[in-house]
């Protein structure tokens, strides 16, 4: 295959593994990523200007990263891979027999356009953190757990001096130990789940002794940094006038309700909070790919149901870096075979497929343990803002359901504006769905990033016939 | 311990930027948000409905809570934009645009 | 919904037109049930901008309906204006060159004779009205009666105000007929509803409902995209569009047609709409369509060049071959009424439509002549009957249930 070959969107573990696998098989790869350095969120690197001599102090599985990084360098030097940094992809366009065009905005201000043509596209867009609302969650000083980690890894800064890490999920352990190692006082790690029961009963875990060791490692670190861990507890409120000053935490009963008389206040100037992860599915959805619930559907070769479009890593379902690597590896090999007109030999990736199967089972088990408490929405007062962008209150959402008959997320959005702001519902969808008592569905976001109208007005125009856009006619409604 | 020590960072020389005209220090490679956190600033925007303060939330460019005006361009994400010497950061109210 | 319900009128379609039919029928003393196969206002209503326009209509039956509707909207605004975000923002139609302005003023003269307020605006006055508009335009016409509502809120609030019972998620599978062929209700996926009157307010899917009642009504979909920008202060004060617009509403061209139609909203974002394409129920995003919208908008308002589009949405406008809606009783099936096919004007025309339907239901003479809107005005030709299959249901489309009835 000559150019244009494969465009990989996202330079995290999945995108990198796919890039290396495809490039090693002669595919010309364009790796497109929004960051200045490869690595994605998991291997987010300190800005080069900061001169970090020991970035591995902020990371896990550093050897894997070194392998990916060095492999990428080798392929870039050999001209097999083009690595486009600071490229924010807003749309992938299907052009029939002409292949696909990736539309991006360049630079941190995201105002200049760039277009990449490809025969195949791999979506490795990863995920982002889910945060459920609670009173006070919009105060400055309340950040997502992943956000605290990203600011630490990329900017070598802390969200405050005294932090509470709260919510649910395995990420909290990493964040609490990371903040503590970097010098923050972690006043408490508050998890609404109780993963210890999981350790006892999980068959999925039995297949992953490395994960048991990993968990034991974190336990040791928590001990070393004297981090108090409160299981089956939750943050019920964040306090402060103009910024965070304290949080109130409380114990949960067996049904996931706050136990009366257990509330207590912890002083802190940072709260790192998260309730799991969600896949980025915008590009896939706009391409017309099937999305099951919140995950992009893929077959055993990591192909979506749209010809020429593959997906790997957390966009296909949350499962961590090792699963992302396995999926990327398989996707890269599949692309190489398919672009050469061959049916891939699945035996080539048997080990990766085995790992994929085990890890998917493992994370399904993890998911069942780290579920947010069943009745979290009861703690959300009517005054609590649930849509941060449009400042829509829980009371307004409840009114849309009760008074106006809204029974699904889209109707709630249309009646309240929840999800219509800058983030387009990425942040508030789980919270709004929970407060409304309806299913969380992935919202439609045809543009994966806001795009300047001046850029949109010229997107792809060089190759379009003038006759396509007769300038006339209008109406009141589409 | 601090994060710079932990990563054994040896950054290039600090430079000056301004926040609403006040000088603050920034390190090479730092984003607007990282420099503001280092300077002890946690909010730099007020919302267009209730006028409430906001700063970093997701830290990775997804939530748009950290919008800020940099060199007269409104609605930049402080968590993404790296600073250059002399940059003028302005706190932002409402839409960030002038009516 | 219980197994069997009875009422005076079943309105099929919980969009804006169905809501208005329910409101005025209820106010006429009738017991109403509104059914929809999807959620409240989930179809074309949710995919529009919510404009209530007279500016784009030439003298004739549609303009008469628009003027009636405008008066009714103003009355509703007194009752529930804030709750439905009613705004009498006014429209400004601009012309780039003197000959275009001349044509525009001539068009406005005809409208004035029909009762439309239309104020000629010279180049200087235009810049006072819209300070951000592109320099060098010849002038335009101001239409103070043009207004806007938030359509989903309007539909939901009016259904609630009507006191009508609402059954969403209930697809009509059969129109029940009695002796002599008269309707006696509908069967839905959630049970039967018995009523002597059924109102077809199913919008783009109105042809299918008509077919269930055994009659031909060739409603077809026309796709339109709308662009939504980041929130802005009120830099665009009116609904502003180019003069060539009016010529193209009635166009039969199947090709993409766009012109810059730009308006600010109370909520902040500027809306830019809309494209018009006949592509059936194809939901895939069309970059050429969006590019044309963005190009048109930035030509009209150059400052938009650096403003960001946050999202786009699309919908399917129901149109009939002569671009007039079907309103009134169907002489072929006693008890069956139609209130659909309003193309891109359904929000605006909904109140008048509901009022006229209610008047006939109550046995009064409708205040407008319904002859131009007769639902049986389309002969069944072999071609026409096969074309009704193009309004086939949302097969393969709609993962977000933008469908009515």
Q: Any key phrases for this structure?
A:
heterotrimer, A: 478 residues, alpha/beta, five-stranded parallel sheet, 23 strands, 32% helix, globular, C: 405 residues, eight-stranded mixed sheet, six-stranded mixed sheet, 20 strands, 24% strand, disordered C terminus
Tell me what you see in this structure:
The complex is a heterotrimer of chains A (478), B (99) and C (405). By secondary structure, chain A is α/β, with parallel strands linked by helices. Chain A contains 14 helices and 23 strands. Helix content of chain A is 32%, strand content 21%. In chain A, the strands form seven sheets. A five-stranded parallel sheet of chain A has the order 3-2-1-7-20. In chain A, strands 9-16-10-11-12 form a five-stranded parallel sheet. Residues 464-478 of chain A have low confidence and may be disordered. With 99 residues, chain B is mainly beta. Chain B has helices at residues 3-6, 32-38, and strands at 15-19, 22-26, 45-46, 53-54, 67-70, 73-77, 88-90, 92-93. In chain B, a hairpin with a 2-residue loop joins strand 5 (67-70) and strand 6 (73-77). Chain C has ten helices and 20 strands. In chain C, the strands form four sheets. Chain C has an eight-stranded mixed sheet with strand order 6-7-5-15-16-17-14-18. In chain C, strands 9-3-2-13-20-19 form a six-stranded mixed sheet, with helices on both faces. A four-stranded mixed sheet of chain C has the order 1-12-11-10, with no helix packed on it. In chain C, helix 1 (16-27) runs parallel beside helix 5, helix 1 packs parallel to helix 9 (346-361) and helix 2 packs across helix 9 (346-361). The radius of gyration of chain C is 21 Å and the shape is globular. The two termini of chain C are 16 Å apart. Chains in contact: A-B, A-C, B-C. The interface between A and C is large, with 51 and 90 residues. Strand 23 (451-452) of chain A pairs antiparallel with strand 18 (308-319) of chain C, so a sheet runs across the interface.
The biggest beta sheet of chain B, please? 5 strands, mixed
Output the radius of gyration of chain B: 14 Å
Taking all residues together, what is the mean pLDDT of chain C? 88
Order of strands across the widest beta sheet of chain C?
Answer: 6-7-5-15-16-17-14-18
| Count of extended strands of chain B | 8
| Overall 3D shape of chain B | globular
Using only C-alpha atoms, the radius of gyration of chain C works out to: 21 Å
Helix percentage of chain C: 25-40%
Residues in β-strands, percent of chain C? 15-25%
**Averaged pLDDT of chain B:** 96
String of helices and strands of chain B: HEEHEEEEEE
Query: What spatial form of chain C do the alpha-carbon principal axes imply?
Result: globular
Total number of beta strands of chain C: 20
Low-pLDDT regions of chain C? 252-258, 384-405
Helix/strand-derived category of chain C reads: alpha/beta
The arrangement of helices and strands of chain C along the chain is EEHEEHEHEHEEHEEEEEHEEHEEHEEEHH
Question: Biggest sheet of chain C, in brief?
Answer: 8 strands, mixed
Helix/sheet category of chain B: mainly beta
By DSSP (H or I, 4+ residues per run), the number of helices of chain B equals 2
Largest interface: A-C, 51 and 90 residues
Distance between the termini of chain B: 47 Å
């Amino acid at each position: 295959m000559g150019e244009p070959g494969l465009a990989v969107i996202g330079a995290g573990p999945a995108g990198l593994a796919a890039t290396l696998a495809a490039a090693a098989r002669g595919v010309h790869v364009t790796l497109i990523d929004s960051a200045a350095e490869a690595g994605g969120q998991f291997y987010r690197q300190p800005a080069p200007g900061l001169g970090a001599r020991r970035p591995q102090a902020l990371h896990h599985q550093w050897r894997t990263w070194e392998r990916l990084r060095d492999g990428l360098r080798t392929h870039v030097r050999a001209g097999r891979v083009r690595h486009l940094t600071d490229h924010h992809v807003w749309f992938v366009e299907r052009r029939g027999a002409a292949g696909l065009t990736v539309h991006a905005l360049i630079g941190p201000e995201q105002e200049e356009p760039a277009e990449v043509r490809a025969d195949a596209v791999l979506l490795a867009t990863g995920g982002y953190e889910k945060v459920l609302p609670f009173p006070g969650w919009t105060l400055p000083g309340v950040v997502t757990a992943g956000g605290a980690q990203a600011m630490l890894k990329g900017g070598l800064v802390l969200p405050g001096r005294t932090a509470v890490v709260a919510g649910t999920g395995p990420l909290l352990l990493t964040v609490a130990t990371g903040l503590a190692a970097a010098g923050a006082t972690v006043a408490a790690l508050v998890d609404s789940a109780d993963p210890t029961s999981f350790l006892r009963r999980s068959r999925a875990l039995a297949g992953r002794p490395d994960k048991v060791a990993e968990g034991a490692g974190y336990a040791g670190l928590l001990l070393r940094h004297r981090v108090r861990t409160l299981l089956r507890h939750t943050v019920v409120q964040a306090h402060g006038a103009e910024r965070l000053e304290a949080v109130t935490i409380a114990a949960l009963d067996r049904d996931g309700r706050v136990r009366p008389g257990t509330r207590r206040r912890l002083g802190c100037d940072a709260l790192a909070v998260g309730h799991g992860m969600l896949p980025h599915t915008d590009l896939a959805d706009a391409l017309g790919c099937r999305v099951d619930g919140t995950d992009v559907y893929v077959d055993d070769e990591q192909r979506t149901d749209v010809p020429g479009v593959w997906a790997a890593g957390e966009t296909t379902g949350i499962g961590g870096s090792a699963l992302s690597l396995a999926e990327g590896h398989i996707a890269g090999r599949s692309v190489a075979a398919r672009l050469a007109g061959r049916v891939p030999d699945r035996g080539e990736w048997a080990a990766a497929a085995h790992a994929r199967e085990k890890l998917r089972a493992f994370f399904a088990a993890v998911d069942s343990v780290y579920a947010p408490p069943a009745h979290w929405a009861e703690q959300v007062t009517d005054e609590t803002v649930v849509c941060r962008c449009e400042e829509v209150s829980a009371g307004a959402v409840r009114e849309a359901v009760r008074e106006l008959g809204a029974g699904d997320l889209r109707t709630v959005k249309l009646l309240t504006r929840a999800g219509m702001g800058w983030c387009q519902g990425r942040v508030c969808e789980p919270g709004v769905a929970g407060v409304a008592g309806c299913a969380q569905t992935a919202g439609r976001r045809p543009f994966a990033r806001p795009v300047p109208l001046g850029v949109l007005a010229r997107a792809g125009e060089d190759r379009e016939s003038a006759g396509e856009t007769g300038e006339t006619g209008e109406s009141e409604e589409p | 311990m601090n994060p710079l020590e932990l990563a054994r960072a040896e950054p290039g020389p600090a430079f000056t930027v301004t926040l609403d005209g006040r000088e603050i220090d920034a390190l090479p490679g730092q984003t607007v948000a990282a420099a503001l956190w280092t300077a002890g600033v946690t909010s730099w925007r007020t919302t267009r409905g209730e006028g409430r303060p906001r700063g970093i939330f997701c830290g990775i460019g997804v939530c748009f809570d950290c919008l800020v005006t940099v060199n007269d361009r409104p609605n930049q994400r402080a968590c993404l934009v790296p600073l250059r010497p002399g940059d003028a950061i302005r706190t932002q109210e409402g839409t960030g645009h002038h009516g | 919904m219980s197994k069997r319900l009875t009422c005076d009128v079943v309105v099929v379609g919980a969009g804006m037109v169905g809501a208005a039919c329910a409101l005025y029928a209820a106010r006429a003393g009738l017991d109403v049930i509104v059914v929809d196969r999807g959620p409240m206002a989930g179809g074309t209503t949710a995919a529009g901008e919510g404009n209530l326009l007279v500016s784009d209509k030439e003298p004739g039956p549609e303009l008469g309906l628009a003027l009636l509707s405008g008066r009714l909207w103003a009355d509703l605004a007194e009752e529930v204006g804030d709750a439905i975000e009613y705004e009498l923002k006014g429209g400004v139609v601009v012309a780039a060159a003197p000959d275009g302005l001349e044509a525009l003023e001539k068009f406005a003269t005809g409208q004035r004779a029909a009762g439309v307020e239309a104020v000629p605006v010279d180049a200087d006055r235009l810049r006072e009205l819209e300070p951000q508009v592109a320099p060098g335009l010849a002038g335009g016409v101001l239409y103070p009666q043009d207004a806007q509502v938030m359509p989903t809120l309007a539909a939901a609030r009016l259904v609630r105000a009507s006191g009508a019972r609402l059954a969403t998620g209930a697809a009509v599978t059969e129109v029940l007929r009695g002796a002599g062929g008269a309707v006696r209700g509908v069967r839905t996926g959630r049970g039967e509803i018995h009523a002597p009157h059924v109102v077809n307010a199913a919008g783009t899917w109105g042809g299918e409902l008509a077919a269930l009642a055994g009659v031909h009504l060739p409603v077809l979909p026309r796709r339109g995209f709308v662009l939504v920008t980041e929130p802005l202060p009120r830099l665009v004060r009116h609904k502003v569009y180019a003069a060539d617009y009016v010529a193209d509403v009635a166009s039969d061209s199947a090709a993409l047609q766009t012109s810059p139609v730009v308006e600010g909203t109370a909520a902040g974002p500027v809306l830019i709409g809309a494209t018009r394409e006949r592509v059936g129920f194809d939901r895939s995003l069309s970059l050429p369509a969006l590019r044309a919208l963005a190009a048109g908008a930035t030509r009209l308002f150059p400052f938009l060049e650096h403003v960001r589009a946050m999202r786009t949405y699309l919908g399917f406008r129901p149109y009939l071959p002569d671009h007039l809606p079907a309103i009134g009783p169907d002489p072929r099936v006693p008890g069956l009424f139609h209130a659909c096919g309003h193309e891109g004007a359904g929000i605006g025309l909904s109140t008048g439509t509901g009022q006229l339907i209610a008047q006939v239901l109550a046995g009064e003479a409708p205040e407008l002549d319904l002859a131009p809107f007769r639902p049986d005005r389309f002969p069944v030709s072999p071609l026409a009957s096969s074309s009704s299959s193009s309004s086939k249901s949302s097969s393969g489309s709609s993962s977000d249930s933008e469908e009515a009835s």
